[in-house]
Design brief:
two-stranded antiparallel ribbon; 14-stranded antiparallel β-barrel; Porin; globular
Length: about 325
Amino acid sequence: MNTTGIRSSILTALLLTTTGLAVAQDPQFSQFYAAPQYLNPALTGNTHQDRIGLNYRLQWPGVQPGYETYMAAYDHRFSTVNAGIGGMVLRDKAGTNGLTFTTIGLSYSYEARINYRRAVRGGLRMGYTMRGVDPSGYLFADQVIRDNAAQTIEPSLIEQISYLDLAAGFMYFSEQFYVGTSFNHINRPNQSLMIDGDARLQVRTSVHTGYSFATDGRVFSKADTRMTLAAHYKMQGKWDQFDLGMYLAHRQLLAGLWYRGLPVLKAYERGYGNDESVILMAGFETEHQLRVIYSYDITISKLTMRSGGAHEISLQYEWPRKSKNRKHRIVPCPKF
């Protein structure tokens, strides 16, 4: 193992053995509206009837092997009672040393109409998370002290734990405007991989808003070309992040441009601006209602493009295209 690998392994081991000081952040998607149940459980069932979604993200492939996140989700709308149910499976693998977690979540949402064009939604998600680590990839301090011994004598490392994870969210939306907020890990589960350790997950708060308008001179509901301006703020412990951008939809085509960072309001340290990435996005919808979107994060932080940026792809299939019951016509809700 080279010097960099040794330092990385020792650092990871130290993080694992710290109780209460090491707080991990959740995985993220640049295409956050293509992962609605993960973004906000209130968006469960914001469809005409049924939806299947697949998401994949590879972050920093230049730092081999990168960080991978997979998600599969399904949700259904009960139009006669204005409710939605759904399920999702999210798996994340961080770096070379086998630090993984898998979450299985069930979501429920309810929509209350204000009038024909405005509504509010509330949602809950109950998840079960399995978090684990492969200790064979780590180098502990006691191994270095004992002339690079093959195995650690550290007795307190747990290779896998599981816990209940709860989330809630709310959304207000009209035909062209929406604003929502969600709260994840509201029960503050203990994610420590140490016996008798205490590393409580910080509550992750998300605020998301957007405004859509027609750009082809037609009435919004009948427009072929629409632009959406959107923002997404995330906060978890001392960590926060802000996404600001737009996407243009023309019939079956979509293109977007986003910026991620907080350069004016916050800096990690003096002289170190809080800029992370510029995100390019493009997608299309087939005649069979399959929506495919690809995005690429261009790293603009000090990590530079040596990180390889981030690749992300999402697939969504939604049916039927139009509601069979006009009495329960849905109000447009945020989605790509």
